């Protein structure tokens, strides 16, 4: 474990996932709450970026598989579950539909390392990744597997939907 966060909560969305620290509504299931309390806080962007880079090194190139959650094949929301579990010891919900409800909605120009980015790829499907800085995000691509892409890519520009800040206990 690279670092932990104190008193965090998170969730997931259809087919994909990402990072988050937030307060759940009273109606949210208690099963989404972290299993333990954590004492060490994230103190800078470099630390979280290094942690995400470490996860990327382990998953780079793993093929995309809808519903997959292992190195034999992983989808975007399951990858986000691994990213957050391995970096901040958070247990995200399984789907992008749930993950997009987490944290605080932020504008594209407010993105910080560790924020979740969401894309509407069809009428009923979403895609999620984690922002890593320099207008790039890590995700599980159907064509390239686990990879890093640019938010400036015309495909991602056309399908960008929103971003959510789920980890607030650090300063950029």
Automatic annotation (TrEMBL):
The UniProt keywords, alphabetically, are: Hydrolase, Lipoprotein, Protease, Signal, Thiol protease
Q: Which Gene3D superfamilies match?
A: endopeptidase domain like (from Nostoc punctiforme)
One family from Pfam that matches here is NLPC_P60
Q: Name one GO biological process term.
A: proteolysis
Q: Which residues form the NlpC/P60 domain?
A: 46-167
Q: Which GO terms describe its molecular function?
A: cysteine-type peptidase activity
Q: Record's PROSITE patterns?
A: NLPC_P60
By its UniProt entry, which InterPro entries does this protein fall under? Murein_DD/LD_carboxypeptidase (IPR052062), NLP_P60_dom (IPR000064), Papain-like_cys_pep_sf (IPR038765)
Q: Which residues form the signal peptide?
A: 1-28
Give the family this protein belongs to, as stated in its UniProt record: Belongs to the peptidase C40 family.
What protein name does the entry list?
Answer: Lipoprotein Spr
Query: What species does this protein belong to?
Result: Enterobacillus tribolii
């Amino acid at each position: 474990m690279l670092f932990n966060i104190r008193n965090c909560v998170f969730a997931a969305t259809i087919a994909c996932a990402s990072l988050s620290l937030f307060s759940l509504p009273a109606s949210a299931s208690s099963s989404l709450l972290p299993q333990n309390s954590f004492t060490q806080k994230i103190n800078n962007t470099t630390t979280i970026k290094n942690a995400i880079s470490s996860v990327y090194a382990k998953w780079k190139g793993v093929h995309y598989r809808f519903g997959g959650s292992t190195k034999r094949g992983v989808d975007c929301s399951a990858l986000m579950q691994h990213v957050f579990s391995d970096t901040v010891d958070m247990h995200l919900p399984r789907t992008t539909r749930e993950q997009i409800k987490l944290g605080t909605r932020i504008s594209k120009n407010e993105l910080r390392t560790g924020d979740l980015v969401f894309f509407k790829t069809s009428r009923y499907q979403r895609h999620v990744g984690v922002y890593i800085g320099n207008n790039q995000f890590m995700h599980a691509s159907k064509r390239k597997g686990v990879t890093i892409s640019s938010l400036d890519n015309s495909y991602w520009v056309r399908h960008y939907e929103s971003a959510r800040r789920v980890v607030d206990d650090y300063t950029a």
